[in-house]
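Page 42, continued from yesterday. The earlier attempt failed because a stray header line got pasted into the input along with the sequence. Redoing it now with the clean sequence only.
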Amino acid sequence: MRPGPHPKGELMRRRILNASAKVFLEYGYNGTSSKMVARLAGVSNGSPFFLYGNKEGVLLELVKLVYAEQFRMTDELIGRGADPLLFYGVETALQMHITELSDALRDLYVMAYTLPSTTEYIHQSTKSKLAEIYEKQFPGANEEEFYELELASSGVLRNFMIKPCSEQMPMARKIQRYLSCCFRIYRVSEARYQPVINQVLAMDLHPAAQQTVDRIMALVEAGFTSAMDESRRKAIKD
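This time it went through. Structure tokens are written below.
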């Protein structure tokens, strides 16, 4: 009999992703060991990351969910058809709010912007969005040129993520500094970008940050549950 859409291998992939996401959120990427994930996933032999290649492969899978949810949350917060610069400001500020929720999340985001496969995914998936947002500033530029600009702006974002908020640099100051740097990279005038930054700073993004993380975990859990249900149905049918 032909296998269904969720054979045993897919069920194990979901189990590993589910366990990894939970451990990542508690201990961060660097604090997560294969033994921790294996124990939670119920993997007794070998590395729990084998179906993803390695630990970085699991993080890549999680990053894909994370960025889809960040874009979705930003659309909900500002509405479709809003000022593209506001979308850029809110979406990137949302990331910085998420990194302030815990040291583990900060470590996850910093590593997502550090490891080869995850950074390449971010750059490739962001370049087309940047082309939409900044087409007026770069008439005639292609997506590969925006890929190069993304290399610059994502490096700025990563450095601001690494630095925790403090009395000397509260969140508002961090967002102001970060966005003003990146808007300059994208040739936006101060007269144009400062009102946008003011709009971003007027928003309370902390609840949205927590909601985004909760949604990501719910999606991971739902995927695992769906795979389990499909596996049971297949077992009964066989």
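Notes: Residues 206-237 form the longest helix (32 residues).
Reminder to self: strip header lines before submitting.
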